[in-house]
Amino acid sequence: MSSATNGEKDFHQSSKADLFNHPDFYQIDDLLTEEHKLIRGTVRDWVKKNISPIIEDAAQQAKFPHHLLKGLGEIGAFGPQLPAEYGCGGLDYISYGIIMQELERCDSGIRSTASVQGSLVMYPIFKFGSEEQKRKYLPKLATGELMGCFGLTEPDHGSNPAGMTTNFKDMGDHLLLNGAKMWISNAPFADVAVVWAKNEQGKIRGVIVERGMEGFTTPETHNKWSLRASATGELVFDNVKVPKENLLPGVEGLKGPLTCLNSARYGISWGAIGAAMDCYDSALRYTKERHQFGKPIAGFQLQQKKLAEMITEITKAQLLSWRLGNLMNTGKATPAQISMCKRNNVDIALKIAREARQMHGGMGITGEYPIMRHMMNLESVITYEGTHDIHLLILGMEITGENAFQ
Ligand code: TGC
Ligand code: FAD
After folding, report:
1. Is 385 in the active site?
2. Ligand 1 lined by 263 (C-beta under 6 Å)
3. pLDDT by residue (tens digit) across 73-111?
4. What's the pLDDT at 6?
């Protein structure tokens, strides 16, 4: 079971109300169903009540708020896009996106936990697992009774996972796993890890490793300036004996983990809009309230330019993600379309966070406002799940047919 330790009492409850209201400049709500809006309202209310009051303190203390996991499971944040027959949400991809948006509106680290659980742990078990594996793990992962992590990146293989050296040997009655993964979200407390490793033929396969298996450790990565409310760690495998039934039977090769990343990257495209909206919403309120030179700073053209450009970029990002969600729902979305959306939306969110930071003046560097936390979080979001430049190269290859990676 999870090594969860931090409870609600470990965090200072802020008395400041979360006043967030989402901008909808192009009436994009008209493109959503009543169910989508209901889901958004439910998640937003839960986030305002449970996460907003403690998130700043969690980030300042660099502690993951474990006590939120049960509630996240209850609101359907874990695997909402997977079928109800395995205890999951049975919702469409737009609903999944909306949930990621509402979580990241508060903090990218909390969205990260949910993305990893739903798209990188539950999805591969659903898509590539045996019926026994699905029945054993998915219902408990959906409620948060079990938490998972996804091990692809290694110390020497980040953007180029094909070069991984983590490997396993078939020992007859079990697999013997050796190697190490780095930068793994949820690793320090995960009960299960979906790990990608090479077999003796050099083919990449997925294996489910459980906490408690001898030789398996998950040291935490400390001193991050980003995603401080998310737990990151390593996965170290020293002659770990993994039962053969823990091998994911349904896939071989790099397309296994990359297929999972399609789902997670899509969710991040919505999540980043959430962070951008929160920065915009806060900047709009602040510039109307803050007076300098005898009037609200919102009355100065330079501030209006920033706000007008922010809402324009948010609106374009909303339309990209909405359209991509519909393509995901019909199984038509391509990896390059997903790259465009993840890359664009995280980029605009980071730029909006930087502008909003300036608009809050000195207050923008404090924990009184969420801006600096979003800004620092987004520095990870623009790097993980494929860096900004890797997504550009994926797009470049799609439109030219030429591979510029190597
Ligand atoms: P390449 O030769 O192009 O492809 C190998 C095989 O994979 C297939 N493929 C895909 N399949 C599904 N979806 C995709 N998006 C796919 N992209 C490629 C491809 O068709 C081929 O299949 P087959 O049958 O021919 O074998 O592979 P490559 O080695 O040249 O690499 C391509 C590249 C650079 C784009 C890829 O390696 C890449 O995306 N690198 C970035 C690595 C990355 O994104 N890592 C993320 C780690 S997980 C993480 O960051 C989680 S953070 C979570 C959080 O906290 O929210
Ligand atoms: P590198 O690959 O070394 O890249 C360094 C720089 O070189 C980048 O700017 C990159 O764009 C550039 N570059 C690389 N190749 C090329 C090229 N061909 N052409 C031009 N430029 C290039 N991984 C997981 O598996 N699971 C997780 O849960 C997970 N969570 C994470 C959480 C956090 C907080 C962070 C920071 C990372 C996480 N990652 C996770 C790892 C993440 O996916 C990698 O950091 C990312 O893929 C980049 O790899 P790297 O850090 O090794 O950078």
Report:
1. yes
2. no
3. 999 999 999 999 999 999 999 999 999 999 999 999 999
4. 85
Q: Which of 258, 259, 402 to mutate to test the pocket of ligand 1 (most atoms within 8 A of CB)?
A: 258
CATH of 148-246, one of 2.40.110.10, 3.40.50.10240, 2.102.10.10, 2.60.120.200: 2.40.110.10
d(CA 179, CA 154): 9
Question: How far is Cα 251 from Cα 255, in angstroms, rounded to an integer?
Answer: 8
Consecutive H or E run containing 204: strand 204-210
Minimum CA distance residue for ligand 2 atom 5: 159
Nearest to 237 by CA among 151, 303, 177, 315: 177
* pTM for the structure as a whole: 0.98
Burial profile 291-312: b = 16 or more Cβ within 10 angstroms, e = fewer: eeeeeebbeeeebeebbeebbe
Round the CA-based radius of gyration of the chain to a whole number and report it: 21
Q: Kindly state the tokens that stand for 248.
A: 């994911």
Tokens 């903090």 label which residue? 107
Residue indicated by tokens 């948006």: 101
